[in-house]
Amino acid sequence: MSNNKNFFEAPQAAAVYKHKLIKSYIPAWAGKVGSTSEDKRVVVYDAYSGPGRYEDEQPGSPELLVDTADAMANLRSVFSVFSEKDQGYCDRLSELLVEKDIDTDTYEVRRGPVEDHIDTVLSNAGELPLFVFLDPYGLTIPFDRVVYVLKSRDKTGYSRLLQPKTELLMNFSFEAVRRISGVVRSTKDYAAKQGQIDALNNALGGDWWQDLARDEPEGWVMDVLEGYADRVASAAECGYITADVADSLQAQPVYELILFTRHTDGFWEMARSMSMARKEWREWLVAAKEEATGGQVEFRGLDFDDDESAWVAELADNMEAILRSVPGFTVENKLGEVLGRTLGLAREMHIRKALKILEERKVIAIAPKGKLQKAYIARK
Ligand SMILES: C[S@@+](CC[C@H](N)C(=O)[O-])C[C@H]1O[C@@H](n2cnc3c(N)ncnc32)[C@H](O)[C@@H]1O
Fold it and tell me: For residue range 52-68, what is the model confidence (pLDDT) as tens digits?
């Protein structure tokens, strides 16, 4: 959305996706990492919080987070930190949390830009598991600061997996990249030009993106996203998983949500949450269209993204292909290859159906029962 003035009137489709993703992922994350943390405590930092709730009474990310924390209060102690640059939004958020009667020991609202708070939030989190959500309108904190968030709490002498657990979910704005990168194609000279180039260099971690922006090869914005995520992952010694988010079934994605994590559980849970979020997003779009047309929705043929039996067939083929090169594999260790084109669409129930097909094809002896994340799939 280019006009941010009306952003908090009512959530648009992309926000429906984002919010369902958070609602689905945070309980799984807190449940998992909080099981071994001190007093079962975890910290969630919503760094660009907004006012907490939309004007049409729909929850924004802060309200979803405190509701999640409240629902988990018997199992996990979730401390929520919010920061917001706009003083009016800070006031609205503080009032909302009081009105909801949220225990004041379980959250803090930090006024002012994320840049002023991030160091304190990291140091206050100590060694507790920390989830950071960066959801700006445009560019977020510089590349080096993103890496710093992911790595600065690492302790020397400990393996990667024994470090304090930090995950970071970022809204990577394609709109901002497209708009700002236009400066490298512009032949005009103007005062702000170098400043805009510097801003994107800082955000993306160098000037490597400039050739892509200048030549605009097919899919170049995706290449910028991948170039960025690869560089963060390599500098912070972590992996990432991404979901593109659009405002309609036909539209180009407005942003990409990138989760940076060091843990296979993170990939598994995020893939599941992406699938759940897409389902809700699609239902929301169909309902909105029905309302707009008085129930007259024309049904088009199913394309791959909406065809669950095609996902199952793809999953079966992907797993069969893996089993041609290795005698067996654990689902979570080959998740990217298992999901392939169905990443963001399929979840455990579809993998289960695909395994049944492999059993029928006699590729495997028997489809595993129970949870599949850690299931070992062996060639017959
Ligand atoms: C996309 S909205 C956040 C929406 C919110 N996460 C939600 O889902 O309900 C971005 C918010 O970031 C705030 N903002 C902009 N620059 C900021 C900064 N440097 N630090 C903190 N907040 C900032 C804006 O005022 C706006 O409320």
Answer: 999 999 999 999 999 99
Same-domain status, 26 and 105: yes
Distance CA 209, CA 119 (A): 28
Return the structure tokens found at 168.
């970071």
Which domain does 67 fall in, by range? Answer: 7-286
Does the Cβ of 37 fall within 6 Å of ligand 1? no
Say yes or no: CB of residue 131 within 6 Å of ligand 1: no
128 CA → ligand 1 middle, Å: 25
Does 313 lie in the same domain as 279?
no
Ranking 67-71, 187-191, 227-231, 327-331 by mean pLDDT, the lowest is: 187-191
Nearest CA to ligand 1 atom 12: 48
Q: Please report the atom of ligand 1 found closest to the CA of residue 15.
A: 8
Phi, psi (5° rounding) for residue 168? Answer: -135, 125
Reported pTM: 0.95
Q: Radius of gyration of the chain from Cα atoms? A: 22
